[in-house]
Specification:
alpha/beta, 7-stranded mixed sheet, 5-stranded parallel sheet, 17 strands
Length: 303
């Protein structure tokens, strides 16, 4: 039986693995994707992680992973099917049919892309990852849907290769940070389309246009691809009925990571918090291990 099982191998989970390994706790990290590092891996560039200026997201994720493994962290690829707790022990049923047990769990499974819910959204040419698929649109016309940091960052990235990038946002003002907004406004081939709501993706075998409701009027943007960046949904399905979640599905937990279920701690983007960034995810991972250590010490006679 493990002292801690960490579910998720993004910055929160890997930081937790670093701290747990240093604390000499018997620890296992469960990850969904082989050599995964969370959504940071598909971020082209990270400019706000202290001490590592202008580092690629994938490179930063690899540094987290290398650090954890260098300290002896055990990382296993397997998806979590079910999580239960009985007689003070967590039982985690995995996709391969096996079950692992632990005295405590740090849940850091992150979030998934929120899907575009309009007709045609499943057509080839609709993407949720600009850095993964942007190279296919050299000299072509694309749209980015969204108004946050990710959407504007995607638009800037795509503008380097695409002929035209429509930035489509449902409001008249963007939510992204001021530096990104300024960069977007200074990029000539980014066309701002505000107060616009997508109504359909058009195409036969591939995307050929995006229909929008623009200031109350129907319009059609002729283009080759659509990139969606409209937020994320937390991967907390295994926790339903086990720990308290908010109305959006995020785990209710403070900076200490303590949830409504003793021995279960939440770290990173899955928990209720104001700011979801790499630096706050890393802090969550460290805090959760500190909380877990206290829990294990207080309950050591139970096992």
């Amino acid at each position: 039986m493990y002292d801690i099982i960490i579910i998720g191998s993004g910055p929160a989970g890997l930081t937790a693995a670093i701290y747990a390994s240093r604390a000499r706790l018997r620890t296992l990290v469960l990850e969904r994707d082989t050599m995964g590092a969370g959504q940071i891996a598909v971020t082209e560039q990270v400019d706000n992680y202290p001490g590592l200026l202008h580092i690629g997201g994938y490179e930063l994720g690899e540094k987290f992973r290398e650090h954890a493994e260098s300290l002896g962290a055990s990382i296993c690829e397997n998806d979590v099917e079910r999580l239960t707790k009985q007689d003070g022990v967590f039982q985690i049923a995995l996709a391969d049919g096996t079950t692992v047990s632990a005295k405590s769990v740090i849940y850091a499974a992150g979030t998934s892309y929120r899907k575009l819910d309009v007709p045609g959204a499943e057509l080839p040419g609709v993407s949720y990852c600009a850095t993964c698929d942007g190279a296919f649109y050299q000299g072509k016309t694309v749209a980015v849907i969204g108004g946050g940091d990710t959407a504007l960052g995607d638009a800037l990235y795509l503008a380097r290769m695409a002929k035209t990038v429509y930035l489509v946002h449902r409001r008249d003002a963007f939510r992204a940070n001021a530096a990104l907004q300024e960069s977007v406004k200074q990029t000539e081939n980014i066309v701002l389309v505000t107060n616009a709501v997508p109504t359909a993706v058009v195409g036969e075998k591939r995307v050929s246009a995006l229909r929008i409701d623009h200031n109350g009027q129907p319009e059609e943007l002729i283009l080759d691809g659509v990139f969606v960046a409209i937020g994320s949904v937390p991967n907390t399905e295994p926790l339903r009925g086990l720990a308290d979640l908010d109305a959006h599905g995020y785990v209710k937990a403070g900076e200490d990571g303590i949830t409504s279920l003793d021995g279960l701690f939440a770290a990173g983007d899955v928990r209720t918090k104001l700011l979801r960034q790499v630096v706050t995810a890393a802090a969550d991972g460290a805090n959760c291990v500190a909380s877990a250590e206290q829990y294990l010490l207080q309950n050591e006679k139970r096992w």
